[in-house]
Amino acid sequence: MFILPKNVTIIEVGPRDGLQNEKKHVAEKDKLQFIRSLQEAGIHEMELTSFVSPKWVPQMADAKAIVEKSERVGRQFVLAPNAKGAELAQESNANSVAVFVGVSDSFNERNINRSTDESMDALDPVIAKLKNDGVFVRACISTAFYCPYEGKIKQEDVLELCRKFVSMGVDELSVADTIGMANPVESYELFSSLKKEFPTILITAHFHDTRKMAIANIFAALQAGVDRFDTSAGGLGGCPFAPGATGNVATEDVVNMLDSLGIITGIDVEKVCIAVDGISEHVSHPIETGMYRLYKNSNR
Ligand code: HMG
Ligand code: MG
């Protein structure tokens, strides 16, 4: 028998992961409209933006305005790679912060200019302060299956990094297939181990869809007991420092699959497509997800 939970939580990452790699500058007002329309679609957990160096990721330079001007609906995450990011996040009154570190050194050196150990040592006091101030902390674990520079990652190395984050007090582990190379067996195995080892921590799966295996990987993760998934409206996304990382799995396609299985997300697929339609004219490539294409065809 298949394991099908009653409810699944979708964490929308479009405004952050979706837009960070976008070549064309997206205006602050268009980002805010995208966020508003996703909230109207029923999304209650969302990564809004990231407090990172504007020299490294110019698209996120308006982070402060985005947080301050968006309406508070549920849990609104901002990414922070270091103490400065966390400080800026707290100044803007963000109630949830996502820190991020990859399993592999080579990826971290390119993404955050530090090795894995250096990043973890620097994040220890940052997480302690956030927790002390009552902030919800999510840890994003990149390159949990494959690294663009080092190839296949050992499951034990992922578990070890997660143990460190858990001992630092994080509330959630969002475990990522950064370059979309994992297959459903790998997804099932890693997420089963994570659910077994960390029964009281929120475990979220974050799949990029480079090889169109993300939906299959989500189904496999569901079988491992995962009921939280990061997805991006319009399938937008990708990390600028991970060659080969194309978009995240599309929110509208994942919600449609969950709907068809009778799993409740509280999200309206058609309204997500309206949000996608709104942002589509501000990105530099066509959006061609399954449900968005159907929506466009039926509205011709
Ligand atoms: P660095 O150059 O080593 O930083 O970069 P530094 O500490 O030496 O500081 C250099 C300058 O940056 C200074 O300014 C700092 O003030 C400033 P200057 O004196 O030159 O004017 N600075 C900052 N400014 C704003 N916000 C900050 C900040 N920190 C320092 N937080 C750093 C290190 C981490 C800052 C840089 O490498 C960086 O910003 N990296 C971000 C990379 C990124 O955003 N990647 C994408 C997100 S992760 C992802 O997409 C993966 C995920 O989706 C999961 C998955 O799919 O795998 C989450
Ligand atoms: Mg990502």
UniProtKB/TrEMBL annotation:
**What is the designated name of this protein?**
Hydroxymethylglutaryl-CoA lyase
The superkingdom listed in its UniProt entry is Bacteria
MF terms in GO: lyase activity
Pfam families xrefs = HMGL-like (PF00682)
Which family does the entry's similarity section mention? Belongs to the HMG-CoA lyase family.
Q: Name the Gene3D superfamilies on file.
A: Aldolase class I (3.20.20.70)
Q: Can you give the residue ranges of the Pyruvate carboxyltransferase domain?
A: 8-273
Q: Which PANTHER family match?
A: HYDROXYMETHYLGLUTARYL-COA LYASE (PTHR42738:SF7)
Identify the CDD domains for this entry. DRE_TIM_HMGL
List the NCBIfam families hit by this protein, alphabetically.
PRK05692.1
Keyword annotations from UniProtKB, A to Z: Lyase, Metal-binding
